[in-house]
Amino acid sequence: MTKIPFYEKVGYAFGDAAANLVWRGALAYLAVFYTDTFGLTAAAAAMLFLVVRLTDGITDIIMGMIADRTDTKWGKFRPWIIWSTPFLGLFMVLVFTTPDLSEGGKLAYAYFTYIGLTLAYTVNNVPYSALMGVMTDDDKERTSLSGFRFAGAFLGGLAVMGFTPQLVAWLGAGDDAMGYQYTMYVFSGALVILMLISFTSTKERITPPVSADTDLKSELFDLTKNLPFIILPLLSITLFFYYRDLNSGLFFAAVMVAMWFVIKKLINKNSDEMSGTQRDMVDLLTNKPWLILLGMGFLTMMLNGIKYGAIAYYFKYFIGDDLMAGQYFVGLLVVSIIGALCTSPLSKWLGRKKLFIVSLILSGLLTIALFWAPQGDATYVFIVGCSAEFFAAILPTLYFSMLGDSADYSEWKNGRRATGLIYSAGTFVQKTGGGFAGALVLIVLAGYGYDGMDQATIENSLPGMQLLMSWIPAAFGFAAAALMVFYPLTDLKQQQMSKDLIQRRLDNK
């Protein structure tokens, strides 16, 4: 079992601190930036969020395949961290830039820059996440490493969410559009430095078995023939989510039934008749731990993403102090860092599965309590919200360490380990959940008549903001707790798999 030095855990954490200068910044302020500064309607911004997440369904899977087949002197995954960093920093600035364009021109610009940002993030973060799966073969060390990672992630998020309102006000001197742009220059510079540290301080130690029979070009061509597996379900969910009418519901149901028959036929197909891409898909579709974690990733991101997407609106209008949103984010993220670092010892005490379920239930109950917060009472919101966030912070920490377990399961069961593909699906479903969460915030606000450019619509939209901070996200948390009951890998089972895999790798040397 490989132990990871302390300095390497810290260096790995710096990578997610950098990524979350983008990720949590976009989740926290992009919606309110689009509606209140950039000038998009809530409905147009919601559709933008959904369309961009649909493209992520393709790019994440492709990036996972590319990373799995990368072979350099720096390893499979580390090179992509440094190669993608300049583009990530560039699009971080461009997304929060407000050009002098027509309404249609602004919408086109928003699509171009937001898709560019998510693509750069994919090229960076899919390999970064997969890197955890090859740094150690010890599941306890992976949980510890995941704790460090998310402590770094929350620290990076703290910088963006805690200080963005003040920096926008200071650097913009009353011009929010310029304030956002200059603020992102600061964060972009920090991102480049942190990513460089993460690249130089980490090491890949596990070399997965190579089983691809064809080159990457052939695999990507083969993937294009299987894109309906990815695109159609996402498209049907997107249409149903956005329009919520009978026609979109019927289309969603028809696609799901058709996909069930196609997947069943593929699974029953002789392995020798399958392409490499199809074998990867079958490995994933028959990997029960991974399938459950896929659902968990989406549901937990909806739990956290809805709240984070609503906070800027909630504090601006329900509490009555938009600058206090930054202070609230600081409080949440300080608690999140503590929660992430407590995950490893708590998982040793309760076991990861039980800890996951307990954290979901307690976070959901405390989140519901925010519904009864008196208008303007920030103290109540800080106490209850930060309490809920301690348990919510445990969820992504456990999630990404357990994705490594599902990669172990695939190798243990099938002799194939597509680490990049497994983690790419994990990061994709997190980003999809974040996109749907942001879109749901805007859809609910639009349903209550919210218009960021018309103050007369604010009063009627306050009940929607209350629901977005309480009952709506909590419902996703309780659904995730119910799903986690069916997760099949106990800690004892994982330990036995790890021992078997170590012995196999020694025998194959």
UniProtKB/TrEMBL annotation:
GO terms for cellular component: plasma membrane. Keywords: Membrane, Transmembrane, Transmembrane helix. InterPro entries: MFS_2 (IPR039672), MFS_trans_sf (IPR036259). One of its GO terms (biological process) is carbohydrate transport. GO terms for molecular function: symporter activity. The chain crosses the membrane at residues 38-56, 77-96, 108-126, 147-170, 182-202, 223-243, 249-267, 288-306, 326-343, 355-373, 379-400, 421-448, 468-489. Belongs to the sodium:galactoside symporter (TC 2.A.2) family. This is MFS transporter. It comes from Psychrosphaera saromensis.
